[in-house]
From TrEMBL:
<dbReference type="InterPro" id="IPR034904">
    <property type="entry name" value="FSCA_dom_sf"/>
</dbReference>
<dbReference type="Pfam" id="PF01883">
    <property type="entry name" value="FeS_assembly_P"/>
</dbReference>
<dbReference type="InterPro" id="IPR002744">
    <property type="entry name" value="MIP18-like"/>
</dbReference>
<protein>
    <submittedName>
        <fullName>Metal-sulfur cluster biosynthetic enzyme</fullName>
    </submittedName>
</protein>
<dbReference type="InterPro" id="IPR052339">
    <property type="entry name" value="Fe-S_Maturation_MIP18"/>
</dbReference>
<feature type="domain" description="MIP18 family-like">
    <location>
        <begin position="8"/>
        <end position="80"/>
    </location>
</feature>
Length: 103
């Protein structure tokens, strides 16, 4: 499997992680800034949250790890929460904006 195909598979798995407050997956919300997997199968997910101090941060991190761990090639998952660049609704997909009634 090529690196591009693996990245697509990782992002597809992350679409299963739903933000509990908004009911939309973290990919369409634009919370995932990057996903990298090394030769050993260790994955680093760089992402943000919609708000600093989000009480559900640990839950979302756990769900990210769970979603990616079902992929055979994945050995370990680390979730790196960053605040720069800050998240804004401009990062959301068209689907997420429609689902949340944002134009």
């Amino acid at each position: 499997m090529s690196q591009s195909e693996m990245n697509d598979q990782l992002m597809e798995a992350l679409e299963e992680v739903i933000d509990p407050e908004l009911g939309i997956d973290i990919v369409n919300l634009g919370l995932v800034y990057g996903v990298e997997m090394d030769d050993k199968g260790d994955v680093l997910v760089t992402m943000t949250l919609t708000a600093m101090g989000c009480p559900l941060a640990a839950t979302i991190q756990h769900e990210v790890k769970r979603a990616l761990s079902v992929i055979d090639e994945v050995n370990d998952v680390e979730v790196n929460i960053v605040w720069s660049p800050p998240w804004s609704k401009d990062r959301m997909s068209r689907y997420a904006k429609i689902a949340l009634g944002i134009s």
